[in-house]
Write a structure and sequence with these properties.
flat, MetI-like fold, mainly alpha, 420 residues
Amino acid sequence: MTAVTEKKSYRYIPPRPPLWLPVSIPAFLGAVIGLMTAEGNKALFLPYLLIGALVFGLAAAASALFLERQRRWSGWIVGMAFFLLGWLWVGFAYGLVLGIVGYVIGRMAIWIATGDYRLNLPPYATWGEVAWFYGFRVICGLIFLFLIMPIIIIIPLSFNATPYFSFTPEMVSLDPAGYSLRWYWDILQNGMADPDSTGWAFFKDMWENAQWIRAIKNSFWIGTWATLLATALGTLAAIGLSRDEMPWRRSITALLISPMIVPLVITASGLFFFFSDIGLAKTYPGIILAHAVLGTPFVIITVTATLVGFDQSLTRAAANMGAGPVTTFFKVQMPLILPGVISGALFAFITSFDEVVVVLQLADVRQRTIPRQMFSGIREQISPTILAVATILVIISIGLLTMVELLRRRSERLRGLSPG
């Protein structure tokens, strides 16, 4: 007979906090939302504060006392109640926002009331340690919200049907009449000789005369060539600086990345006087060279970081097998450092695509890029078209940064720093 020992698994059950804890935090959030709803009216500050705290506190108490067994539906029940309250009180848009907040409140109340908030912490954690653990994350979240708030605001404003930089009552109430694509259409038509043209004539006129289209062409043309030049120079410099026998490595590295440190207006002024003497000012090659100077440090930094984990014995093995330096670079080094090279190229392209100070001093009307056109639009003719262009640039930047992150993860997998 073989004795079989049964293993029992024990699950840590956190202690339940007093009822005032899951009620007080939502009540505080309700007081903050009540103050924001008062819209600067001092006479309404105290009543709205008390109403918000009372409503949110009661919702949290109801969730903690009656919806614990239905915790899966607690957020939806409270969210629907808040949605109906906001819709009847102010309007559909306000009800939608309150519904989202109510869903969070319902889930939060259950999460706190059952003690699940302590599951990510050791059982011996004190109240002060628990408060700092979540307080630190709340502070980081508020900082992140503060940083992305301008982006969150300009995206819906770019669909405004009126030529104003503010939310209209129709937009707030989610009325379809308050939204329009007119400013995105204005990107195509602005500056055209005949905006009413149709068919092939419209596209031909748009491609040749539309101011924003010309700025977009210039940005991609200059950015592409500047990126290629910066990537080639930066990659070669990083490979040279990564070798142990390279003399004065620190001094040369500091010199090459100095365009990132020196104020941009000083760099632009120096390039302007230098290019004026050799005839490159107000030309495409001059702007391409200037943007390549600004993008090269990003390529050097990213490629150097990739080369830190590179096994130099591979290049020595290739040399022992008879491969020359060029063959070794393209067959051995380049495949392994390619994610870092592409990441540096993307950063160089973003730097060129977003640069305006150098273009202000080195370019004329023919070399206007998107940032230069936006700068002119702000000074000469304020139009929500700028918001539409900014939204497009945000989408492009998000796509490029997402690609950089995917390449970074691929580089870590190739170097064995993360599981495949």
